[in-house]
Amino acid sequence: MTTVLLVDDQTLMRVGFRLVIESEPDLEVVGEAADGRVALDQVAALRPDVVVMDIRMPGMDGIEATRRIVADHPGSRVLVLTTFDVDDLAFAALRAGASGFLLKSSRPDELVDAIRTVAAGTAVVAPRVLRRMLDLFAPHLPAARHASPDGLDPRLSTLTPRELDVLRLIAEGASNSEIAAELVVSETTVKTHVGNVFLKLGARDRVQAVIIAYECGLAGSSTPRR
């Protein structure tokens, strides 16, 4: 059973989400919160698998709440909700550690599928959608740290040449099957490389790995699109 905490300052939104989620036999809403500060208390007490987080709330917003949840309760993954498909606040929430974002106008089946996907440890932002977001907001990313003698950001220094290739392709929006075709290896091998990249970078999922690639200067608007 996947447990879910709903965080939204609008009561009607929480009621609607609860009805949709609890219609699924494998999902359970274990709590609700109307702002980020209450959400932190609820996460600490309930340890939900997934937090469905609104961004724009009075008091502590969803970005700060996401940052604290990811830091203090890594077992709880955050799915942020936004009204706009390219929202600077949604992007900030991804950088804060959210595992993906979903439009509030999404269909009920998309919501429950996203919750299951996040609970399974996979990002719910389609790679190419993420790429468009990052291209839009790349100018606001922090400057890359001082490069090592080999020209790489220190965060990438532990990656092998093949793992760097894999990270570049992930940042271009390539799926595992596309990476396998590009590098002429099996998908099983790609999965191993992707797992190693996540482990070495301390990335929770593809979303975080792509953001790190942008921050390190490994990817950017000049990188060819697939």
TrEMBL record:
4-aspartylphosphate occurs at: 54
Segments forming domain Response regulatory: 3-119
Q: Which Pfam families match?
A: GerE, Response_reg
Instruction: List, alphabetically, the SMART domains matched.
Output: HTH_LUXR, REC
In its keyword annotation, does this UniProt entry include Zinc?
no
Picking any one GO molecular function of the record gives: DNA binding
Q: Report the PROSITE patterns cross-referenced here.
A: HTH_LUXR_1, HTH_LUXR_2, RESPONSE_REGULATORY
- Tell me which UniProt keywords the record has, alphabetically: DNA-binding, Phosphoprotein, Transcription, Transcription regulation
Q: Transcription regulation as a keyword? A: yes
- SUPFAM superfamilies assigned: C-terminal effector domain of the bipartite response regulators, CheY-like
The segment(s) forming the HTH luxR-type domain are: 152-217
InterPro entries for the chain: CheY-like_superfamily (IPR011006), NreC/VraR/RcsB-like_REC (IPR058245), Sig_transdc_resp-reg_C-effctor (IPR016032), Sig_transdc_resp-reg_receiver (IPR001789), Tscrpt_reg_LuxR_C (IPR000792), WalR-like (IPR039420)
Q: Which GO terms describe its biological process?
A: phosphorelay signal transduction system; regulation of DNA-templated transcription
Q: What's this protein's name?
A: DNA-binding response regulator
Classification of source organism: Bacteria, Bacillati, Actinomycetota, Actinomycetes, Micrococcales
